[in-house]
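Continuing the batch. This is chain 6 of the set; chains 1 through 5 are on the previous pages. Same settings as before, nothing changed between runs. Recording input and output for traceability.
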Amino acid sequence: MRKPMVIRGGRVIDPRNRVDGVRDVRLEDGRVAAVSEKPLPLEGADEIQAQGLWVTPGFIDLHVHLREPGEEAKETILSGTRAAVAGGFTSVAAMPNTQPVNDSALVTRLIRQRAHDADLARVYPVGAISKGLLGEEMAEIGALRDAGCVAVTDDGRPVMSASLMRRVLIYTAPLGLPVMVHEEDLTLSAGGALTEGPRATRMGLLPIPRSAEVAMVARDLVLLEEVGGRLHVAHLSCAASVALIREAKRRGLRVSAEAAPHHFTLTDEAVEGWNTHAKMNPPLRHAEDVAAVREGLADGTIDAIATDHAPHGVMDKQVPFAEAANGVVGLETALPLTLELVRAGVLTPVRAVELLTSGPAATFGLPGGHLAPGAPADITLLDPGAEWTVEAARFQSKSRNTPYEGRKVTGRVVRTVVGGRTVWPPEEKR
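Output for chain 6:
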């Protein structure tokens, strides 16, 4: 039995329950027991002083690559969930592009067992849409759902077959499973390394036009309107894609979307000097795209901030730019990058917290994301004014592939609580 906990005098921000003010929070038996404007009695509980801190529901990341099984040199479920809780994330959705692919209940159960053994953040497996991520034959989605998968995706690869995508939407509709899509027309992006524009031309790199993403978003919205289901668009990066999602929502389609911090804080300028740590898919875009993604986050078009945490080894990045692996680690920098939008006046504090908590929880139908009595005792305590400098060598992740090395940021996680137990910082650092 875990000892109860009273978190005292912090600014509680709970968007789902419209709470934003100084409160005490009591956690008991792995659940939120009370949230009160008046001081709560200790009654045998541990007392956590939170004056000057924000107390929020535990962050939820819908898009994380944990690499296990198969690529444990890059990340393991243990190291990845340690990075998650260091960044304030109490729940993460694990992408299926492992080795072997999570296209079977056996792999799903392995991931869940390893997450149970790690005993840090909650891990929600996401199953593959197609067997082997080959885009040819639908995976056994019902079995994946029964084994614990909360969504399906071929993330890292698009579903090029419109027929397969249509069948998947039909099949998953009665199961209530979101279909998460990596939108990329490979006939337009093949061989590309950088978004189309003057920089790609000057660097002599094959370009990736924005239409590679936008055309696939449009196709899948047409299919969604025709057959129903739940569509979730991963890592939106283009202004036109944001506009399509906004219009689809206006017409009542069951579509949701996420944006990654690198797509709302960086442009393709970050690749100057052949910086492979700024190479990702979809690629960094132009200033007008960044502005549109920010607007989508602010106005509700985009439902969640998701990191697309993609660990890679040193030799995956220390190669010619066109040959470098796509992706960046993001769990430990997401909070301060999100708070940059708050300081810029793009997001209110409440909206920023919503995008990291209740927004993603609602998108995938996950527990948590709020602090009403009875909710899981998953809490993030953060200091919104703490200044620090990003140093990849200090990450909890096994990998160091970040474009933010040396960036001065503001906002840091002070404590992460999962199920009423402090999991960050480690006991020896408290």
